[in-house]
Write a structure and sequence with these properties.
The complex is a heterodimer.
Chain A (H helix, E strand, L loop, with lengths): L1 H27 L1 H27 L30 H37 L1 H16 L2 H10 L9 H5 L3 H14 L1 H14 L3 H8 L4 H12 L1 H24 L11 H9 L10 H25 L7
Chain B lengths: L1 H5 L1 H29 L5 H8 L5 H11 L5 H13 L13 H36 L4 H15 L2 H15 L16 H35 L2 H8 L4 H23 L1 H14 L5 H10 L3 H29 L13
Helix pairs in contact in B: 2-14, 6-7, 6-9, 6-12, 7-9, 8-9, 8-12, 9-11, 9-12, 10-11, 11-14, 12-13, 13-14
Classes of the chains: A mainly alpha, B mainly alpha.
């Protein structure tokens, strides 16, 4: 028993060393390193948005019709929009919403994808081919039209409660839910691949020879060793999720005003391209930079975990 | 004839066609159910258009149109009609759904086809160049541009292009398919430029990265080393040996990206007011045009699945090792 405990501690120690190596390799991957800094900055700004608002005495919802479409100044560093609201603060508050949706939907997708991937990879055979058909099917579908239909569904027709649907945050939960419905596929495929090779490994055979139940093998032997693909796939899927959220909000189906999100800020800006083309720049830039940062980070993580993978 | 049908490839194609049909039927039911859950129903719309309708009239109308029947029964009736080519009437256009879908589908295929061909024509050479010079400056630049292409929101790119080329420079029209009254080939092409560029740019990045990864993987293979050892020149090795093998996984991934292409087309068409399937589907969902939305979504799915099927066949052509007679087992 003590031997076992020692070897478990040994394995944990190994993982510590490996984690350090991964971090070192990640810091050497330039794009991923800068992306991490950028994302940390964005996250800090989003978290500090209320403090910044209090400090400057501005409110992102404050309408000031005397200051419509003002150019950048000391008071409004990115200027104001068509209702005289501060563009910079609205960006920060929009970032809170967009990042919350992205992280929540990515986490939920990771859980579903992991469950499906583990089941397919471990049980193999019919379960595997059925689940992978489903995954390929979802990947191959034109997702955006389906998301639009899902976003347009009237939940009260399903008999869901009224109080929840009337709350300001309903559009937030709703978009997290529908993006999760289609977002799990990347994680599922990668986890399935990992589980397929792990189930042939000696420690899994040993556990199964000792009579461990499939559930126990999956949870305590396969899952911990499949963490790498889960982290990589989840990071990579965040970018896609932000793109889906922003386009749905842009089309008026995602986050609803007055709550600001990068997508719905752009749909206001679209109506003003002839009078104030500058308004279209910042929210789009915020989406673009966040998405590219998550993609670089995912790429960097993939390499850091597996240096032999894509690069020579 | 019997020989043709009993050939393994033909059996494979028939099997895949069958699968496609099953997926379409499942999709049609799911979408039918979802559309029933959208706000308002056709009778509500009639009531809002005509204040003289009483609730008794509404109930009678519901009975006439069969809206009071259970969903399976309604779906069955819809499916029977649809299989005979009758998808009903569009509310907004007051025309049979199919008469509206066909021209829109044509417009979309022009947009998607041009963008796809352009994206592949740029991305595959770019990916190859990157793979042949790994970690070089060119590789890093191509990598950066690929990531930018993958990460840029389609609607924002469209917005920026409109601001630059239509609002500021005034070179190209900001939307539509043709100038009213002009409608020549040249005029149509001018209207196509910005949508095609938008859709192309958003596809290139992913394709170039697939190509780079596949090429690097192939260049490491033993048969490449053998060819080099035999003294074959580099050009021959790349084109005859590496490229053909690298294309196999790339074609599969390209096939799976038709759905993404369609999603991109929906945004592009909506941004540029280009009358294609994507915009039609979006407008019909937004405008409660149920019959049109349902048929449009199914057509979009069908086109995507047929694209996948086509790539599956290209796969067999590219890789003669794939035999459909005996399915390989294992992962």
């Amino acid at each position: 028993m003590t031997d076992l405990a020692a070897s478990v501690r040994g394995v944990k120690g190994m993982q510590g060393v490996q984690a350090l190596q991964v971090l070192r390799r990640l810091s050497r991957h330039r794009p991923a390193f800068y992306s991490l800094i950028l994302l940390a900055l964005f996250a800090a700004l989003a978290l500090l948005a209320p403090a910044l608002a209090a400090l400057t005495g501005l409110d992102p919802a404050d309408v000031d019709l005397y200051q419509r479409l003002a150019p950048p100044s000391l008071g409004h560093i990115l200027g104001t929009d068509e209702l005289g609201r501060d563009v910079f603060l609205r960006l920060l508050y929009g970032g809170r919403v967009s990042l919350t949706v992205a992280l929540a939907a990515a986490a939920a997708s990771a859980i579903i994808g992991t469950a499906i991937g583990l089941a397919a990879g471990y049980f193999g055979g019919r379960t595997d081919s059925l689940l992978m058909r489903l995954t390929d099917g979802v990947i191959a579908l034109p997702l955006l039209p389906l998301l639009i239909v899902l976003a347009a569904v009237d939940f009260s027709k399903l008999g869901l409660g009224g109080a929840f649907l009337d709350s300001d945050l309903a559009s937030l939960y709703r978009i997290i839910l529908i993006i999760t419905l289609v977002g799990w596929t990347t994680v599922a495929r990668l986890v399935r691949g990992a589980a397929l090779s792990l189930r042939e490994r000696e420690f899994v055979l040993a556990a199964s020879a000792q009579g461990a139940s499939p559930l126990r093998i999956i949870v305590s032997h396969i899952l911990p060793n499949a963490v790498t693909p889960i982290i990589v796939a989840t990071t990579l899927s965040v970018g896609n999720i932000i793109l889906f959220e922003s386009v749905l909000s842009f089309l008026g189906l995602g986050i609803q005003p007055p709550v600001s999100s990068w997508g719905n800020m752009l749909s206001n800006a679209q109506e003003l391209i002839w009078t104030a083309p500058g308004l279209s720049i910042w929210p789009g830039m915020a989406i673009f930079l966040t998405v590219i940062a998550f993609n670089f980070l995912g790429d960097g993580l993939q390499e850091a975990f597996d240096p032999k993978s894509t690069r020579d | 004839m019997t020989a043709l049908i009993s050939s393994p490839l033909a059996r494979h194609i028939i099997g895949r066609l069958g699968e496609t049909c099953v997926v379409i039927v499942i999709m049609s039911f799911a979408v039918y159910g979802l559309i029933g859950l959208m706000p308002g129903d056709p009778i509500d719309l009639m009531i809002s258009a005509d204040p003289h309708l009483t609730s008794a009239d509404a109930a009678r109308l519901r009975a006439v149109y069969g809206l009071d029947r259970p969903i399976m029964e309604r779906y069955g009736a819809w499916l029977t009609d649809a299989l005979q080519g009758d998808f009903g009437y569009s509310r907004a256009f007051s025309q049979p759904v199919l008469d509206i879908l066909t021209p829109h589908l044509g417009n979309s295929l022009i947009l998607m086809g041009l963008s796809f061909v352009l994206a592949v024509a740029i991305a595959l050479p770019a990916g190859m160049v990157a793979a042949l010079n790994p970690r070089s400056r060119t590789d890093h630049l191509i990598n950066l541009l690929s990531f930018a292409g993958i990460s840029i929101p389609t609607f924002w790119l469209a917005l920026l292009l409109i601001i630059l080329f239509s609002v500021t420079l005034g070179w190209l029209p900001p939307g539509g398919i043709a100038t009213v009254g002009v409608d020549t080939i040249g005029d149509r092409s001018r209207h196509l430029v910005l949508p095609v560029v938008t859709l192309t740019v958003t596809q290139i990045g992913a394709y170039a990265r697939f190509m780079r990864a596949a090429m690097i993987e192939t260049l490491r293979a033993d048969f490449i080393r053998t060819a080099r050892a035999k003294g074959a020149n580099t050009r021959r090795i790349i084109i005859r040996h590496a490229l053909r093998n690298a294309l196999i996984p790339v074609v599969t991934i390209l096939a799976l990206s038709f759905g993404t292409l369609f999603s991109g087309a929906l945004i592009t068409e909506t941004m540029f007011a280009y009358p294609g399937m994507g915009k039609l589907i979006f407008d019909s969902i937004m405008g409660n045009d149920f019959n049109l939305a349902l048929a449009g979504l199914l057509f979009a799915t069908l086109v995507t699945l047929l694209g996948n099927l086509g790539a599956d066949l290209a796969y067999a052509w590219l890789d003669p090792r794939i035999s459909y007679a005996t399915r390989r087992k294992g992962p």
